[in-house]
């Protein structure tokens, strides 16, 4: 049942604090991320030279966040490949490559085929799957389950954030076993990760603020979503979510790339959603926002609460995200973007849980 909510999507968004906690907590031992119960040997995480994520849709977007995390905190080379392209682009994988397949259903045919290709080429394989015993889990050497519980809405929400939770745990564990983090730093990382459920809950408690802001894109034909670094990675997902459930054309753009073409499309009729949570690119991001505002765009701003805004700028909406360490801001910001897409769909009177032309499990190539 929908637990009193009008749609599964809302129920599943609201379940996130709990299912994220259930995914993280059993995997922290002595304060340090630990996959002993999943039977993941540390050698798997230590001996690889490269990581390659294969996945589709939302799961691929989770992989992009994983890429940013592993690259910057573990300093390992990592690629994220669309599973549907992986085999046809002669991707290079070998016995020193750890291939990670990410899939909610565990039955997506493209991801399954990519995994088989990786195995044929000698790679080590690990999957991050939600449905117990699914084909992708069975086909890979190692599996880590997300404890999201059944996800019914076609638009993935809690599966995504629990996939992210696993990727944080992997980052923490890899940094530790590869000697980049000592026990103290690994514990610090895990402590911040353990705060995620409560911080996401704070965003969900304020969902009516996002409902109000969502009116700014209700009648839009096109929406642009801009951000840099991790903010860009989560906007790709936020944009997919909006497209899927509201049928509004939306594009996520790395802010710095705007002036290489797309800014030509920004007018007073294209609302822009901007996410600003990363200290190191904050000031560049705000200047990109000023550029779109000067083309007449109305901007909905999701920003870390600690940032201050120039006086005199007008905004179509502002949502202040509870602060965490920068690399964890992905979590509260993603919850806010899910709610934004949800409320647009709800207020348009659409069938939120069953968008046209989409299936929950994609078993054709
Ligand atoms: O079951 P999977 O995670 O392998 O599914 C992958 C995609 O089909 C899925 O994430 C799809 O993009 C969702 N509709 C997104 O909301």
From TrEMBL:
Name of the top EC class for this enzyme: transferase
Catalytic activities: D-fructose 6-phosphate + L-glutamine = D-glucosamine 6-phosphate + L-glutamate
Domain SIS span(s) in chain numbering: 40-180, 213-355
Molecular function GO labels: glutamine-fructose-6-phosphate transaminase (isomerizing) activity
EC number(s) per entry: 2.6.1.16
UniProt keywords, alphabetically: Aminotransferase, Glutamine amidotransferase, Repeat, Transferase
TM helices/strands, residue ranges: none
Protein name per its UniProtKB record: Glutamine--fructose-6-phosphate aminotransferase [isomerizing]
Organism: Kineothrix sedimenti
Parent-protein start and end of this portion: 243 to 607 of 607
